[in-house]
Amino acid sequence: MTGVPSQAKRRAILEAATEAFLHSGYSASVDEIAAVAGVGKQTVYRHFRDKQTLFLAAVAAARTTTAEQTLTAASPPTTGPPTASRPTASRPTAGRPAAGPPTAGPATADRPAAGDWVFPSGAAAETLTLLGEQILAAALSPTVAALHRLTIAEIGNHPELSDHWGDGAEPFVDQELAGYFRRCADAGLLDVPDPARAARQFAYLLVTEGRVASAYGTKHLTTDQRHAIAAETADLIVRAYRPA
Amino acid sequence: MTGVPSQAKRRAILEAATEAFLHSGYSASVDEIAAVAGVGKQTVYRHFRDKQTLFLAAVAAARTTTAEQTLTAASPPTTGPPTASRPTASRPTAGRPAAGPPTAGPATADRPAAGDWVFPSGAAAETLTLLGEQILAAALSPTVAALHRLTIAEIGNHPELSDHWGDGAEPFVDQELAGYFRRCADAGLLDVPDPARAARQFAYLLVTEGRVASAYGTKHLTTDQRHAIAAETADLIVRAYRPA
Amino acid sequence: MTGVPSQAKRRAILEAATEAFLHSGYSASVDEIAAVAGVGKQTVYRHFRDKQTLFLAAVAAARTTTAEQTLTAASPPTTGPPTASRPTASRPTAGRPAAGPPTAGPATADRPAAGDWVFPSGAAAETLTLLGEQILAAALSPTVAALHRLTIAEIGNHPELSDHWGDGAEPFVDQELAGYFRRCADAGLLDVPDPARAARQFAYLLVTEGRVASAYGTKHLTTDQRHAIAAETADLIVRAYRPA
Amino acid sequence: MTGVPSQAKRRAILEAATEAFLHSGYSASVDEIAAVAGVGKQTVYRHFRDKQTLFLAAVAAARTTTAEQTLTAASPPTTGPPTASRPTASRPTAGRPAAGPPTAGPATADRPAAGDWVFPSGAAAETLTLLGEQILAAALSPTVAALHRLTIAEIGNHPELSDHWGDGAEPFVDQELAGYFRRCADAGLLDVPDPARAARQFAYLLVTEGRVASAYGTKHLTTDQRHAIAAETADLIVRAYRPA
DNA sequence: TATGAATGAGACTTCATTCAT
DNA sequence: AATGAATGAAGTCTCATTCAT
After folding, report:
1. Which of A174, B28, B204, D54 could form a disulfide with A208 if both were Cys (CB 3.0 to 4.6 A apart)?
2. Pick from C156, C165, C215: which is nearest to D149 by CB?
3. Are 3 or more Cβ–Cβ pairs between A and D shorter than 8 Å?
4. B149 in contact with A at a CB cutoff of 8 Å?
């Protein structure tokens, strides 16, 4: 294992760095990272010019990783019209089976409607609540939350961090949520002139509420707490975009 | 300077520490703080047991300071129909076209309605937009934004930071915004079952949008950008709570 | 490149090492040298036992190279009356009025006599001035000057450096200068009991003046400055060895 | 010994640094310097911003020190007959065997004439030889030689070194030598149009010969060797400036 | 009480050299 | 034979904290 750019070691270093930076911030020591990765300090510096380079690479890697996990975790429960129930950890990851659109038909939600409205917005609220719970779980997971805190902490010192960075809520938004709103609009369930905006609003408010409640991912939130937040936020959005 | 820990020096230390921590994070050096405060290092340690204690005190002081500034800056430029609230030092930020209060009568807004609804929600949207612009300006001010970033950065290492901490958006919410929503509800302009919740939702979404757009206060936002965010958020809230 | 230490690589390493050491001193890194030479580090160590060995070899190589360049550059632009010596590539430095050889006859110098003496010492002074200018240009060239500084810098740590080392002024002296003085003596122009000594004195004083004036080759000297130094030194020597 | 800028420690650091730099060059370690000075590393950095600052300060200090020693050591052993010059603090360094002044009258030199000329230049040659021996001893002393080597070694990296720097030979020249030549001229012993130039030429050539012979102060020179160099150089100068 | 000099640990980074491929 | 990854030591500099004045 000499003489050839060991990709394995590079990965080990990156993993160790990610863990260290997420745990201790930028002040994590290169010594510690090297030790955890099981390599010499110089090896770290051969792969990454300096600490800052290593830091940015680690953040980028963490983003990729968490984005992947997140997307699969938060994939819409794919509710069909009749059965709107969360088939749980259905990580389809590939060939995402077009998330179930909110059909116009009478939504016999298998859960009591969160709001007090009549059909059919209630079905949308319910689906959004389910989606929201998943998004919350992902966004408040230790890793994602730590990445978010780290980014904010260092955005002043490393402006590159703001490139390709929204708020840690984007991954959820771009892919699935906007599509869901569009389908709701197409189905006449909601009156959503700009699905992307609606998706962003839902995600931002949802995640912000979750972050504040959990001290930015530092304190655990019970399932009930997450459900309440998701339901409340879904309620707001559905109210706002309910057809006149 | 003769035997009793001078309060003036304490204040000087606290000010220097606040500035240093806000600027450089927890890694700001005690040396620098003592130098800026114009005292010896030992004096710092006589007033504050160690760096962590100094840090927490500085953050607490910064919160008090910014909360004060914030409240006066973001006080609603106006009042509700029946009761005028806190006519304090509401720095109108120069010629700002005295925001319309949620009047019950036909709101001849001196500005084109942001939305496309009929009366009188439009007036509320407009007022909320104005309020939102002020809130945004305050929340994205260098000091407030830095305090927010610092808190998030260190919340993992100093859990005490989460005590008495919402999201940096609370001050706006608690005092003024909730009252405004209540008055709107009382006046029949909006249908707001829980004014505090509405206030929180408005503030959270507003500030989050502003933070994301400005890289957490790191990049400047133009007045137009801030206006667009405020208007969009106000639109959402007013839509959501518009009377059925 | 298949089993025998390639001579081409050795030369490349030596060249890279010379450049690096001349530029950065002994602290130049082996890494950098290997990189510039386009070889692996191990290859360097296969050709040279360790850094010190490489260093000494590089210095030796640089001496050979610069001595060659120097001799051709500083070859006397002229010859003595009886025997013409090596009229080689005597770069006349542009329009320089072909230096007068020490002719025995009444020297109708094509230049006004630098000093105020009568014939024929004036001719010798002029020729020495021309020679001196060339010697100066060579001795203060970036490479030669750097080699000189490097040698002095490391002579304490690597005593081998003083073997075969005079002062970087020897090459001029040994070959050409002494011969010139001898010819002058033979021609009766000067009274030089020990031509080698005279050559050494001229060269040492000339080069020392040039080095001091140029901060040891670190600052550029104009042609005029070099001319003044050469003229002054030639004047001294010719005065000292003028026939009684 | 706290709380007050200890000048004693500063001096100790400077001394240690001077010794270390003179001995090992710029690569001497700050650790070692601090250890030798008997202080902590941080104390070094409190007194001197960084290594370069310390280095330059050490060189400056060494120059001052050696210049002082040098001037007293090389002070002209005596004065001229008519005009006693520099009655100043010419610490005669103990019973120096009153060197022959350039007497105008028939110079009954208390030493056999070094050359083979007639009077009175011979007296000047002898005195210059004596002076030259002292200059040589000073210039080749371990400390002065090391300082010279160090300066040349680092002049490329620290251009400030060339400020206030001639060649390490100036101190001798400026003060005493030029005066001596002037007195010789006044007395009609020598024909020296520019005493300062003569002094410089004598000193430069003398010291350069000494440096080359001693491998830049690295190898010891016997008294005889130094005498020979001084005599030879004095001979050249006196020849050059002998009255026509 | 207040000062700032002093400390010792530890931060990042680089080096000459060796080893496994 | 040649590569460059790896090592361990060392270098410069900074920090939070204490001590002597």
Report:
1. B204
2. C156
3. no
4. yes
Give the nearest nucleotide to B29, CA to C1': F15
Nearest CA among C182, C169, C88, C165 for reference residue C135: C169
CB contact under 8 Å between B218 and A146, yes or no, is: no
Neighbors of chain A with 3 or more C-beta pairs under 8 Å: B
| Contact (Cβ atoms closer than 8 angstroms) between residue D143 and residue D62 | yes
- The answer to whether residues C36 and C16 touch, using CB atoms and an 8 Å cutoff, is yes
Q: What is the pLDDT of residue A226?
A: 97
Positive or negative torsion for Cα C172, C173, C174, C178: positive
Chains D and C touch (3+ CB pairs under 8 A): yes
**Do B79 and B180 meet the contact criterion of CB atoms below 8 Å apart?**
no
Nearest to B70 by CA among B14, B1, B148: B148
What is the arithmetic mean of pLDDT over A227-237?
Answer: 97
Contact B216 A155 (CB under 8 A): yes
CA A134 – CA D206 distance, rounded (Å): 89
How many residues does this entry show for chain D? Answer: 244
Rounded to whole angstroms, the Cα distance separating D48 from D55 reads 9
Residues of D in contact with C149 (CB under 8 A): 152-153, 155-156
Measuring alpha carbon to C1', the residue closest to nucleotide E18 is C42
How many whole angstroms separate alpha carbon D189 and alpha carbon C126? 28
Task: Kindly give, in sequence order, each residue whose CB lies less than 8 Å from that of residue B39, ignoring residues fewer than 6 positions away.
Answer: B9, B12, B13
Cis peptide before B120 (omega within 30 of 0): yes
* Integer Cα distance of C105 and C128 in angstroms: 18
- What percentage of chain A reaches a pLDDT higher than 70? 71
Q: Dump pLDDT digits (tens) for D37-74.
A: 988 888 899 899 999 999 999 999 998 888 777 666 65
Neighbouring C-alpha atoms within 13 Å toward the C-beta of C198: 28
CA dihedral C87, C91, C97, C103 (to 10 degrees): -20
Whether residue C120 has a cis bond before it, omega within 30° of 0: yes
Residues 46-65 of chain D within 7 A of strand E, judged by CB, are 46-47
Burial class (CB in 10 A: 0-12, 13-18, 19+), A60: middle
Which of residues C224 and A179 earns the better pLDDT score? C224
Question: Could you tell me what percentage of chain B is helix, strand and coil, using 3-state DSSP and rounding each to the nearest 5?
Answer: 60, 0, 40
Distance CA C205, CA C194 (A): 17
- Whether pTM exceeds 0.90: no
Distances (CA, A) of C205 to C128, C136, C239, D199, D200: 13, 11, 14, 12, 10
- Strand E contacts (CB < 7 A) among D residues 202-231? none
Give me the amino acid identity at B35.
Answer: A
- Within 8 A by CB and 6+ apart from C81, the residues are C101, C102, C103, C104, C183, C187
Phi, psi of B109 (to 5 degrees): -55, 140
Task: Report the distance separating Cα A166 and Cα A70, nearest Å.
Answer: 15
Strongest mean pLDDT among B117-131, B158-172, C13-27: C13-27
B3 by Cβ neighbours in 10 Å (0-12 / 13-18 / 19+) ranks as exposed
Find chain D residues with C-beta within 8 A of C201's C-beta. 205, 233, 236
Q: List the Cα angle B167/B171/B176 in 5-degree steps.
A: 135
Q: Least CA distance to C205: which residue of chain D? A: D205
**Nucleotide with the nearest C1' to D27 CA:** F11
C213 lies within 8 A of chain D by CB: no
Distance CA(A24)–CA(A150), nearest Å, equals: 9
CA distance C13 to C23: 15
